[in-house]
Design a protein that fits this description.
The complex is a heterodimer. Chain A is an alpha+beta fold. Helices cover about 50% and strands about 20% of the residues of chain A. Chain A has a six-stranded antiparallel β-sheet with strand order 3-2-1-6-5-4, sandwiched between helices. A five-stranded mixed β-sheet of chain A has the order 8-10-11-13-12, with helices on one face. In chain A, helix 1 runs parallel beside helix 6, helix 2 packs antiparallel against helix 6 and helix 8 runs parallel beside helix 9. Chain B is globular. Chain B is built from five helices and five strands; from the N terminus they run βαβαβαβαβα. Chain B has a five-stranded parallel β-sheet, sandwiched between helices. The longest helix of chain B is centred in the first third of the chain and has 13 residues. The chains are: A alpha+beta, B alpha/beta. Chains A and B meet through helix 6, helix 7 and helix 10 of A and helix 1 of B.
């Protein structure tokens, strides 16, 4: 050890290190204050990404958000980038977990992935990503998962270098601080997007509700005028009473549905369970749905097993579940379609399935099909009537019975199938 | 000869109630359950007034009004709707219907007298 030169070098090194620490802590402090004051989330991604590139002393950087509902294990979408050429930005716009880049590896393992040398990196060998990285001049890369407070991956922050590079421990620790802030931001954005979407759907629902409530009132007013007139002949009066009865029943249905929605969302909907046979549940539901099914000229086929299938539940509410599925099938099937209702027992479960050959459901719409007020504007235009709450109520009611509902469709124009699974009563 | 009215609405009870009411008022009434059938009927048995709903499954009311304006320019048109403000658009459906060429608009549920008055104004009693 050289005693004479050491204090000098040490002092210089310490001064440099202090300077770097000071610069980085100032950077982090600036970001914290921006995070508090800046309203636009997009601007904040940019700020955090700039800070990450500065802290890691990298030549490139990117931030991605995870869309967990896409693909098998979710896909990362590019939110912001530094130094990427347009071709690279396109190539990595969406990244899957089976991708060969560091972000794919980090998504697979849930931990930070480092490729100190892209050319020799094991998990990149033979992948298209390796070629794309080399072509873009990215010879080293690291990806750090953005982990939410709930412990889930919500995105990724990555930095890349023009030369092979091993990131310093200290830099990575600072990056982790940034990653936590970025994760909070993405969660905030998610929450805001969800709120906006819920708000939009509620607006649509109210517009639809006012339309649906007014619709039966118009014929009711017309026939009331006729019935008030003593000169109206008996056959016309009879027709008028029929119209009155049906349209009032329609209004009652709408109001009942609305009340149920409000009871379900406040958790005040009570069940009166007893042991019921599903054949009786189905028969009640069919009676209720018959007018709608027949008005649309559909053929309804019912298949019941030879042995009775019993469950413990509220017969009125269980019928409502089946009615809602039948009405849904009748509404979203073009005139003269086929609806098939089947009851079966599978082990400890009873299942009621309703299948139609109607307009079907797009794959991307399937996960949200049971959401309240979910009714595509398109489907609403072609198939008016109903509030878009039937499936949502059906699911909640099935869940309250300890069961579940599944929806399946081979795609648009290829029909749909809904299956209710309920715990079977012990025989 | 009584004036002929063509009522187009996807709700069958609404159609029937309009027929009962307007026949009692002395008109001849034809019914169609959507815009395409209305056009088809009009070609075969021309009416003097089209009374159409706005929201309908096939060929909605606004399209139907536009079609009638092109193919049957002399037919008078009454638009009726229970819809509120158009989502993402400007103004109400009824305003849009008036702009598309409807001679009168009725917000559902209308007073029956308002309907009869609108019809009388468009086809004065002989």
């Amino acid at each position: 050890m050289n005693i004479r030169t050491a204090p000098d070098t040490l002092a210089r090194q310490t001064a440099q290190q202090l300077e770097a620490e000071l610069r980085d802590s100032k950077l982090l402090q600036e970001i914290s204050s921006q995070l508090i004051h800046e309203e636009r989330i997009e601007a904040l991604y940019e700020t955090i990404l700039d800070a990450a590139v500065a802290i890691m002393r990298s030549d490139f950087g990117s931030m991605q958000m995870l869309y967990p509902e896409r693909g098998k294990a979710g896909e990362l979408r590019l939110l912001a980038f530094r130094g990427f050429d347009p071709e690279s930005a396109r190539f990595w716009e969406w990244v899957r977990a089976d991708s060969g880049c560091t972000c794919g590896e980090a998504l697979r393992t849930g931990r930070r992935a480092i490729a100190a040398d892209v050319a020799t990196c094991g998990f990149m060998a033979g992948t298209a990503d390796r070629g794309a990285l080399l072509k873009a001049g990215m010879l080293a890369a690291q990806s750090t998962p953005l982990i939410s407070r709930g412990g889930k991956i919500v995105g990724m922050i990555s930095t890349h270098w023009r030369a092979p590079h091993v990131p310093a421990e200290r830099d990575l620790r600072l990056l982790d601080i940034l990653a936590r802030q970025a994760a909070d931001l993405i969660e905030r954005r998610r929450a805001e997007e969800a709120l906006r979407e819920a708000d939009r759907r509620k607006d649509e629902f109210i517009a639809m509700l006012s339309h649906e409530l007014r619709n039966p009132l118009a014929p009711i007013r017309n026939v009331v005028t006729l019935l008030k007139d003593d000169a109206t002949p008996p056959p016309v009066r009879a027709d008028a009473y029929g119209i009155l009865e049906r349209q009032v029943a329609q209004l009652v249905r709408l109001v009942d549905d609305l009340l149920d929605v409000s009871r379900v969302s406040r958790g005040t909907l009570g069940l009166q369970p007893c042991e019921v046979e599903l054949a009786a549940v189905v028969s009640n539901a069919v009676e209720t749905s018959r007018p709608l099914v027949e008005a649309a000229g559909h053929e309804l086929e019912i298949e019941l097993p030879r042995e009775p299938v019993r469950v413990v539940g509220d017969p009125v509410r269980l019928s409502q579940v089946v009615t809602n599925l039948l009405n849904n099938a009748a509404r979203y099937t073009p005139r003269g379609g086929r609806i098939r209702l089947a009851v079966r027992r599978a082990g400890a479960e009873a299942a009621i399935s309703v299948r139609d050959n109607g307009i079907g459901i797009e794959a991307q719409a399937l996960p949200g099909i049971f959401d309240m007020f979910r009714q595509g504007e398109h489907s609403r235009q072609r198939f008016p009537g109903g509030l878009g709450i039937g499936l949502s109520l059906a699911r909640r009611l099935a869940e309250m019975h300890g069961g579940r509902i599944e929806a399946a469709s081979a795609g648009p124009g290829r029909g749909a199938e809904f299956v209710v699974h309920l715990p079977a009563a012990r025989t | 000869m009584p004036a002929r009215l063509l009522v187009t609405d996807d709700n069958s009870d609404m159609r029937q109630s309009m027929r009962l009411l307007l026949e009692r008022a002395g008109y001849e009434v034809e019914l169609a359950d959507d815009g395409l059938r209305a056009v088809d009927l009009q070609r075969r048995r021309p009416a003097d007034v089209l009374i159409t709903d706005i929201f309908m499954p096939e060929a909605d009311g606004l399209e139907t009004i536009a079609h009638f304006r092109r193919e049957f320019p002399r037919v008078r048109i009454i638009a009726m709707s229970g819809g509120g403000v158009r989502v993402g658009g400007a103004g109400s459906y009824l305003q849009t219907a008036a702009a598309a060429g409807a001679d009168a608009v009725l917000a559902k549920p209308f007073q029956t007298e308002a309907l009869l008055e609108a019809v009388r104004r468009l086809v004065p009693p002989a």
